[in-house]
């Protein structure tokens, strides 16, 4: 399910697929680089001269012999025992980068260190002088000049590093933004009004044009840039003009319908006159951001198609900085909500205006910051209204599965927003703050960060290989890489999921202490409820990449419908049966159950599609071992954290000490237990880290 559009890094939060961009988790594999670009990527990371684990170099993937199922590499348990000693086992991460080898160094024999087989010396031409066959000894080879920067593989590496750094910084600044939001508006109804209003523009954008724009129109854009005589400039300007016109009209309609939209999102807020007025005012400031979201996405994809990836990932940082500065001004004038006790009845019109204008300005700056980069890339923005006969209508018709996919995600979000705001307001009146929609969003932001950083990074490296193997009909290679992605990401995701359960409360009392002790602890309970759901949430992201590699977008849609329906039903049960203060925690727990169901259905469908075993026994065995190592680690780490907060309290010092002490205990116990259980992926990861550190 999707959380509101995350302007921090241009990513929506959530995913049946996650949304680590300003995109829904639609049927495109990765928001920073659409599927059509990734599938044809060149190799993405060079190998060091020794290899990460001392394993012999392999030829580039595209030069390996065609695969035959009976010749495919067996798993260790299947390989016959050799009669000779084996070299050190290959690090589980090393084969991510088998597509490249380091350039041959000085004195490297032909065929060594280049990833290419040695080429035989051509025979002399007929009639050539005999002296050509007996050359004097060659002088000692001189070191070749330093390799020039700018090779294709190096360029991809630099682009990937720029994007990864931009995403990380965007998420970190977005997290700071959430902290100042909670400090300024609190964890009760006032904070919910801002959060609900802020969710509206992203939801409308994604439902109307966002998903189709990224999955259908952008591939058409790249095709036009490749095939058209003008490099696709005319097509890009037509698309940009069309998006601006459509979104401009959409903004006008949405602003006029703001009261109805607020009621759609939260009947509880709409029934409270003071809260409703504040929420509608916020919404009318925020809804114009729909226009700037679309403009930013189109401009960013135009730059991506010209191999300029940094601006789209870094400009959201400007947005976050503007909003953080805005909230800083608000805090300077009014103080924290805890000290000022601001509420929906006491916040001033000037305060609402300050936050509204500042939030809108953030998206304006984010979009306009793209223009200098477009000019530097040689693209000039010119409005073009000659839309007919240029493929835009056909592209729109192709987007139907994406639109349905996104609709299924957003329908769940609307229902959950209704439940969370209703229960949160009732719980606040009963003396339990921090149990509403803002608490849900804040906990979700923390919970999704590991998946967005770890799983997405692993699959960004694997997806081009999986896509090439799928295109070649090499199901065994797809299976192997899918298994590798699941097991590699699980090494970090599984213990982190247990860490959220064990240390969720000190995490939130440290980060959201401005909401008050009771409110921050409520945030912690919600994070704990989310905790273990991180495991199926991450696994589903990996499994769905295989469908995208086979260019199947319909199955992810059906899978999302199943997840959404299950989440809505389970959340409704929580809303009816649980006390108000625990409803949102129940919704968070239901999120993980829904994704457990979703990944099991997706796994069976993928196995039927590929008509082969998906290495399920090995994957399940790895997850069980990691969970077995995480359980005692979480018990001991959580116990240590509880003891420290009992002695020092839940303030900043006590929370920091509990998080540090409990986290250290959890990490050590997990590592020692996993080593005893012979989790080979953990051993490989540790070996890789040590080799990169030179130890």
Q: Topology, pairings included?
A:
Elements: E1 2-6, E2 11-14, H1 35-38, H2 152-185, H3 189-227, H4 233-256, H5 258-265, H6 267-271, H7 273-286, H8 289-305, H9 310-334, H10 337-340, H11 349-368, H12 370-376, H13 392-397, H14 400-429, H15 437-472, H16 475-511, H17 517-530, H18 534-549, H19 554-577, H20 580-610, H21 616-648, H22 652-676, H23 680-693
Antiparallel strand pairs: 1-2
Helix pairs in contact: 2-9, 2-15, 3-4, 3-7, 3-8, 3-14, 4-8, 7-11, 8-11, 8-12, 9-11, 14-19, 14-20, 15-16, 15-17, 15-18, 16-17, 16-18, 16-21, 16-22, 17-20, 18-20, 19-20, 21-22
Subcellular location: Cell membrane
Keywords: Cell membrane, Cell shape, Membrane, Peptidoglycan synthesis, Transmembrane, Transmembrane helix, Transport
InterPro entries: Membrane_Transporter-Flippase (IPR052031), MurJ (IPR004268)
Low-confidence stretches are 1-135, 140-154
* Gross morphology: globular
Number of helices: 23
Q: How widely separated are the two ends?
A: 43 Å
Percent in strands: under 5%
| Classification by helices and strands | mainly alpha
Strand order of the largest sheet: 1-2
Fraction of residues in helix: 55-70%
Query: Tally of extended strands?
Result: 2
Largest sheet: 2 strands, antiparallel
In sequence order, what are the helices and strands, one letter per element? EEHHHHHHHHHHHHHHHHHHHHHHH
**Radius of gyration from CA coordinates:** 27 Å
Overall pLDDT score = 76
